[in-house]
């Protein structure tokens, strides 16, 4: 009789559409080396039709389209002790039942943060140099006099709302540049900010002093609609607002109203409350509101970094090593 494979057992449950991007061949190979990898991968819908699919599974690997780890699922997965999620937030999949069971939870938010920070830092530098205003003026005038609307970044001030996973990475990219960087984050301390080359200020001061404001706060009840008329009106002449976080952070009606009255301001929105905005939304109408279709996060081959992070964490779990991207129950209140 063949000896049973003694390794921990893992199974992948996520939507099929993005599976190959999130878990490329090298990530799958690493998973197969670290664990007994049950096949085939299935979707949450298939899992609901196959009640015994997780009966002998120790580790659930997930991504977009992950199942909710509730009491019903746990009853059908008596050996489950870890959920490794190859995406950002885990708020929508963990429950009190999973925490009460002591399930270890890992998020690949760190891997997803890298492309967001990369794109945002690039947008900030372009905005600080006045590229948005010169682009609009060039289209209007159609001659090179529009170049005078642009300027160098030296002496410009950037404000970051929140120094979480992405905000910190943006600050690191800007450190040592000609830009002055401010931040507002009630959970950050002065030592952490100083190590990033950042000065902590109030949110009102952030908007009042910054030539470019970039939003990185989680969408929570207390942050929803927080960027409204009062803050927007504080922005200096020619300032730019960048949002690669969540659309709901901004009061969009106030934004449209303020930017209609102040054509000197620019809003660059990669996220909106409704995605995409309705065809008749005023967000499409104003030249000083620039929309992109939620491209700041992991796209295409970039998504593979999340699967590789999960594979690495699975390897650590199999070896009894501490997890590097573990999410604790106490962290959820501050997470998106």
Can you offer a commentary on this structure?
- Helix 2 runs parallel beside helix 13 and helix 6 packs across helix 8 (165-174).
- The protein has 336 residues and is of the alpha/beta class.
- The chain is built from 13 helices and 12 strands.
- The model has no long low-confidence stretch (mean pLDDT 93).
- Strand 10 (240-243), helix 12 (252-261) and strand 11 form a beta-alpha-beta unit.
Describe the structure in brief:
Strand 3, helix 4 and strand 4 form a beta-alpha-beta unit.
Helix coverage percent: 25-40%
If strands are numbered along the chain, what order do they take across the biggest sheet?
8-7-6-9-10-11-12
Low-pLDDT sequence parts: none
The total strand number stands at: 12
Q: What fraction strand?
A: 5-15%
Q: What's the N-to-C terminus distance? A: 50 Å
Molecular shape: elongated
- Main sheet? 7 strands, parallel
Element order, helices and strands?
EHHEHEHEHEHHEHEHEHEHEHEEH
Determine the mean pLDDT: 93
**Computed Rg:** 23 Å
Count of DSSP-assigned helices: 13
> Would you tell me the structural class of the helices and strands?
alpha/beta
